[in-house]
Amino acid sequence: MNILFVCTGNTCRSPMAEGYLNSKGVKGLCVKSRGTAADGMPVSINAVNAMKDIGIDISSHISKQITGGDILWADKIICMSPSHKAALEGCNVPNVKLYVLGGGISDPYGGDKNVYKNCRDEIISAIDKLLSDGFFGGFRVVPIGEKHIKPIAMLERVCFSQPWSAEGIIESYKSGTVFFAAENSEHMLGYIGIKPVLDEGYITNVAVFPQYRRQGVASALIERVFELAKERKLSFVSLEVRVSNINAVSLYEKYGFKTEGRRRDFYRNPREDAYIMTKRFENNEDTCD
């Protein structure tokens, strides 16, 4: 989903909103900001310092004027005030794309650092509310915690004829398997497990709840495993997949996995062969193709 924040000069409110939402690491979101009267100025130093106080760097931002291309690109345009929304409506921007953040964010222009801090906090509160409401429809990938065990066991029962139990998942975790879960503000969407052994990695399972498929969840989980492979300097990552699971095979091929073998009668219920698919890394370089 493409999100565009809009204020007037694109030097204060919208860059802070862009920086904060980007810092949340929501998978599937691409975030930009623009102004209705921007002229290529650097971001306000008070905005930079207000965001720096919470560990977010927006110092490289340069203001940009909103264009027709930006409007076409954006799935949702979040304005800093009702007047910005009205201005865009007057330019025939589809109303269905337009929103006002928090009912309107106070303009800090000309104020001191405390004014900018208050503006920053308004922005954070409003964006956090949108996140909790599922407004962005996005998700994040996180290491699993205790809260994920039951949903993973449930997902196993949904997806596999020989599912892991909650106890089996915990035991695997204790024995060194690394698990990641994709989650939104309310639900776990899917999970992946990988067992690193020396410089090798073996993916144990990848699963996504049916209602969340075709939304980039499996891709995000695989990309997170690739990040782990880079961190651990793994030479390859390998997995098994049913030979009839064409969609999964296609996804793995997209990410550079190649079929390197076949295990006869690997699966039960129904009995079926498995492809052995492996992604090899050259010199432990970055993994994303």
Q: Can you give a write-up of this model?
A:
The strands form two sheets. Strands 5-6-7-8-9-11-10 form a seven-stranded mixed beta sheet, sandwiched between helices. It has two domains: 2-132, Response regulator (Rossmann fold), CATH 3.40.50.2300; 142-284, Gcn5-related N-acetyltransferase (GNAT) (Aminopeptidase, 3-Layer(aba) Sandwich). It is α/β, with parallel strands linked by helices and 289 residues long. The relative contact order is 0.10. Helix 1 (13-23) crosses helix 5 and helix 2 (45-52) packs across helix 5. It is elongated and about 70 Å long. Helix content is 35%, strand content 26%.
What are its keywords?
alpha/beta; Rossmann fold; 289 residues; seven-stranded mixed β-sheet; 2 domains; 9 helices; disordered C terminus; 26% strand; elongated
What percent strand? 25-35%
CATH superfamily of the largest domain: Gcn5-related N-acetyltransferase (GNAT)
Main structural class: alpha/beta
Mean pLDDT: 92
Q: What is the CATH C level class of the largest domain, in words?
A: Alpha Beta
What is the CATH architecture assignment of the largest domain? 3-Layer(aba) Sandwich
Give the overall form. Answer: elongated
Summarize the biggest pleated sheet.
7 strands, mixed
